[in-house]
């Protein structure tokens, strides 16, 4: 029997129970007007809406960790430290994930900062060979840009996304829900045996 709609359940009963697979052609969730990129978490709130309403095929995550943080330098540092501790607890390699977390969290604190609002770090292992890192901030109107090499003198900053592009097997940006955006990166996990 499908779960009752989120609106019919008390707020305390709403939880993330799975991740719906988006239609490969349209990128939309079944029965939804929103787009997804096979996301682990879709909102900044502490309560996530159940996307498994009987029509969408849910897939269980092997590991998941999500935490809201302040959009400050201290919050960015804490994101990196928490990611390292979580990766150790899961028995996963620290690099290159900690470098990617550090860069995405620093970008959220520096470029995605809105006074009074934070950002969310999410780590999940949707498949045994993939670690997905997501950083969601509330500046959906300000999308990150990857710098391109120029013949002029090189800039002193702005190369973080080039680092992410080089270290991650895939990365991208997902808009929404308004006013948020999520910058995500996936890292292939190599077995040590």
Automatic annotation (TrEMBL):
<dbReference type="Pfam" id="PF13581">
    <property type="entry name" value="HATPase_c_2"/>
</dbReference>
<protein>
    <recommendedName>
        <fullName>Histidine kinase/HSP90-like ATPase domain-containing protein</fullName>
    </recommendedName>
</protein>
<dbReference type="InterPro" id="IPR036890">
    <property type="entry name" value="HATPase_C_sf"/>
</dbReference>
<keyword id="KW-0808">Transferase</keyword>
<feature type="domain" description="Histidine kinase/HSP90-like ATPase">
    <location>
        <begin position="70"/>
        <end position="178"/>
    </location>
</feature>
<dbReference type="InterPro" id="IPR050267">
    <property type="entry name" value="Anti-sigma-factor_SerPK"/>
</dbReference>
<dbReference type="InterPro" id="IPR003594">
    <property type="entry name" value="HATPase_dom"/>
</dbReference>
<keyword id="KW-0418">Kinase</keyword>
<dbReference type="GO" id="GO:0004674">
    <property type="term" value="F:protein serine/threonine kinase activity"/>
</dbReference>
<keyword id="KW-0723">Serine/threonine-protein kinase</keyword>
